[in-house]
């Protein structure tokens, strides 16, 4: 039930701090340490390469998951779109493990890959929100998202839940491989939940941003570097699917290789700046688009913020920023769709579970 909320999407955006806390609890052992069923950790740590397979928003969570697993557990990861992987499989490593990410657990494109890799004799892990779903039943192992039912077509809380579960998987695998950095994930995810709460309390500010940048525009660009780039892909997908504004996410450095040609007087360009190493270079990209007349909307993390930034998100661990930087982008899409009179929860041409290939 959506209760007092006008839309499921807004309710589900607001549930994200609670979902973070549920996930932390669900993956803690009695001593408060993060823990995952040892058979799953063995399968992950014995693989020489992980193949993450997913579609849409779940694919975007997989891109972030790759960074987390490679940085923390130091296991190589590839991320593939299901519908491409099935017909154009890359050369596989000797001991691959397949990880399917699917909110619904019913996505036909992903299932087609699962059936194929099982036929080839490989093991598979499904990360899903729905226990007993097809992808969960047909894989060897399952990790649950604990996000509660997601009703709105546009995925929000499942995306952040997927990243949190991937972070936990990366952390537990890292510890099991003997890489225990100075990183207390339970504590860091707690800070993320608090930061999410702050952001969910900034709706009026984001609504005003949607009004200022997106009321009349035909298109919108999202630019970021490193982890911010992946969040930009997700921010653009959210905006196009519910507001029908043509939106694209780009790596900041790729702009000058073509896309910058599309920047006109007043084109909205949302830039994410949450990564210290690339803060200088993304701000250079912002200057490039301003010089072509763009209307920039900089969303930065506290500590990296500069004068003129439009929105500042609280500081969290640098590897976990996607969990919070996505929230203003989800809200931006929500309010843009609302202002433009679109059906937020049931956008045209889309279904919640895509059960055809
Ligand atoms: C976007 C969205 C879709 C799904 C995609 C995969 O908001 O909802 O892009 O993410 O269809 O769905 P699942 O995760 O159920 O496999």
From TrEMBL:
Positions of transmembrane segments: none
EC id: 2.6.1.16
Reactions it catalyzes: D-fructose 6-phosphate + L-glutamine = D-glucosamine 6-phosphate + L-glutamate
Catalytic-site annotation from UniProt: 352 (for fru-6p isomerization activity)
Sequence ranges assigned to domain SIS in this UniProt record: 40-179, 209-347
Subcellular location: Cytoplasm
Top EC category: transferase
Keyword field: Aminotransferase, Cytoplasm, Glutamine amidotransferase, Repeat, Transferase
A GO CC annotation given for this chain: cytosol
GO molecular function per UniProt: carbohydrate derivative binding; glutamine-fructose-6-phosphate transaminase (isomerizing) activity
GO biological process annotation, one example: UDP-N-acetylglucosamine metabolic process
Superkingdom per UniProt: Bacteria
Quaternary structure and interacting proteins, as annotated: Homodimer.
Function in brief: Catalyzes the first step in hexosamine metabolism, converting fructose-6P into glucosamine-6P using glutamine as a nitrogen source.
Protein known as: Glutamine--fructose-6-phosphate aminotransferase [isomerizing]
